User: What shape does this take?
Amino acid sequence: MSLDKPVVMGIINLTPDSFYENSRAQNKKQLLAHCEKMLHDGAAIIDLGGYSSRPGAPFVKEEEEALRVLEAIDILLEHFKGIVLSVDTFRSNIARQAIDRGAAMINDISAGDDDPKMLSTLAALQVPYIMMHKRGSPQTMQQLTQYENVTKAVFDYFVAKTGEAKQWHIHDIIFDPGFGFAKTTEQNYQLLGELEVFKILEKPILVGLSRKKMIQHVIEEEASNALNGTSVAHTLALLKGANILRVHDVKEAIECIKIVAMMN
Assistant: This one.
């Protein structure tokens, strides 16, 4: 897949408690409907998550996460030929099983920090690997927002992660600055405003801004009414060099990409 032009990753949450209700797929009918619409609207990748990472989300046992994710992979690969599936997990066992089932890439919110076997597993699998910056867990991260300079902290983290990945001969890396993960609203917007500095790393940049608290707080709306604010944030991210938009609303994200491309 070429990332010379930005692409859209559509979010499908296989959890009952993800922060945006309309992203949840609790049965086969919902899963197929969500996926069909996203593909029709132009999504290049579908990201499946079986463990909610929203602040304060409850712990999910590995067996439950695996059941949710692997069943969804089987269903989608059966119905949509050529679909590119990403699996949002920090657990190496689930990553391995997901790729064996036919998923194409792994999206790890911990960049290998939460499972010591993740990097060796990805080295063996040799699939694209999204490495996100965060601190702590969904239960603790909002108390871990002390940075001297958040952009420098995230940049230094990715420099270190690049070194680790090279040691394991993992080459197809995508970096996600982790908007909303152990960051205040002000820190999130500093990161967004300085996003272009991450291009120095010469790796694709994924941004997950869709309907998040950083948008809700500024426009004083709930997630259900945060689409317009999300489109503004996506446009700013694209102007700053984002390569992948991870979104709930594919059609509107594609429109942002088209308009920025025309201007450029």
